[in-house]
Structures are given as C-alpha cells and as structure tokens.
Amino acid sequence: MATMGPWSRVRVAKCQMLVTSFFVLLLGLSMATLAALTYFGAHFAVIGHASSDRTPYEAVHRWAFYAAISLAGLLTLGAVLGAAATVREAGGLMAGGFLCFALVFGALAQAAFWRFHSPTQVEDAMLDAYDLLYDRAVRSLSSTPRQQLLAIQDTFLCCGKSSPFSLLGDAEASLCRGEQAARQDCLVGIGSSLRTYGHIVSILTGIGLAAMVYAMLLSAFLWFSIRSGSSLDRRGKYTLNRRAPGCQPQEPSVFRRSQGGPAL
User: Fold this and answer.
1) Counting beta carbons within 10 angstroms of the beta carbon of residue 167, is it exposed (0 to 12), middle (13 to 18) or buried (19 or more)?
2) Taking a C-beta distance cutoff of 8 angstroms, is the pair 76, 33 a contact?
3) In a 3-state reduction of DSSP, which class is residue 44?
4) What is the pTM (predicted TM-score) of this model?
5) 31, 71 in Cβ contact below 8 A?
6) Most buried among 20, 151, 181, 233, by the most CB within 10 A?
7) In this model, does residue 187 exceed pLDDT 90?
8) How much is the CA Rg of the chain, to the nearest whole Å?
9) How far apart, in whole angstroms, are the C-alpha atoms of residue 197 and residue 126?
10) Which residues contact 90 (CB under 8 A, 6 or more apart)?
C-alpha cells in the first residue's frame, strides 16, 4: 500500500487537472463574452460611435477589448494544453499549459493593480466623451450631434446633465422635454452602468487569479511526475506484479495469436 500512495496522489491530481482545465475553458469563454459585450454592446457602442478621436475613450475602448480577447485566447489555449497533457502524459504540453497560466496570472495581476490604482479611468473617459458631445449638441446648429446625443440618452434612459453654472438657457433645456425630463441625469446613469460592468470585471479577475494559482500548482506537480516516470498509470499498476529471479516473462497470448503461433 505504501508504494501505491504517490501514484494515487498523481491520479487524483490528473482528475483535478481535467476539472480545472474545463473550468478555465469556461472562464475563457466568459472573458470572450465580456469582451464582445464591451466592444459591441449597446451602452459602449453608442458612445463609441459618437465620440471623436480627441477623447481618450476610443483608445481605452480598444485597449480593453484587445486585452480581454488576448486573455480569453490564453485561457483557452492553457485549458486545451493542460487537458491534452494530462491525458497523453506529455511533459512538453504540460509546460506549455503552465506558461499560459503564468502569463494569464501576470496579466490579471496587472489588471487588478490598474483597477485598484485607477478605478475611475474608464468611467472618466466615457463621461468626458459624453460631455464633449453634449456641448457640441447644444452649441452646434447641425442635427447630427443632437441625434447622437438622443441615441445615448435613449440607450441609458437618461436625459441631460446637471449644470448649475450653465449659460446656455433654452438651447440646453430643449434637450429634455416631456417624459424625457423625468429621467435621471446622464452622468449618473452612465456612471451606474459602468460600475455594474466594473463589478463583473472585478469578480472575473478575482476568480481568474485564484484559478491560475491552482492550475499552475497542478501543472507543475504533474510535470515533475511525468518527468519522473514514462507512464504514470502503468507505473502505478505494475508495482504489484513482481516475478521471481531467473524467470523469463511470457509474451501475452493475444500477441502470439497475431503472429500465428499457438497459445501457451
């Protein structure tokens, strides 16, 4: 029983690695879904179409999308490599999975630090884009900025913004009439929507960091186990079958039949 202990732990670790790889794959799909919602979602797309290149929102918007897609790709690749390495007991594939998990852990740690250090950077960029569009819609005679502003207000179910020092008068008051005047301030509505997305990102980041630590520990343990023996399952089974010295191992009958000889 003592000789079976280490290999039993290896088999348990292999089962845990398969389950962890499946969970990491789901996490990668969640990251990809969040990236698609961030880039193509109505709340972000309507401001992206209305914002100009002078605002930092476009750069932040593209950076968030590409970062989330890259993380989703690394998570999917790490999950596939970890599962394939566990089934095939391949040290190279396991090392590749460990590298993917380590890269994702570093990226998530950097994202968590950035979120802690600058928690309102995305919100400020979006609000700045709305402020510029609001000023253009009020001051400009063209109908295009006003239509873009109305599209944002209909998407966020808000209208106007609080501006006690405004000197625009009737031009600003004409933006919110009838039922729209009862809506909330757009600065408040945009901020609350972004905080909801921020909470989801924080939850996924925390889950991802914990999952990457566990996946790296499992992949490192299994890599050392694979390097210590050519076949983990076979090594654990053959420890009970010991022959006496001087006895020649008999060839299994299935192989002798395939060669045409009689079975002994």
Assistant:
1) exposed
2) no
3) helix
4) 0.75
5) yes
6) 20
7) no
8) 30
9) 13
10) 84, 226
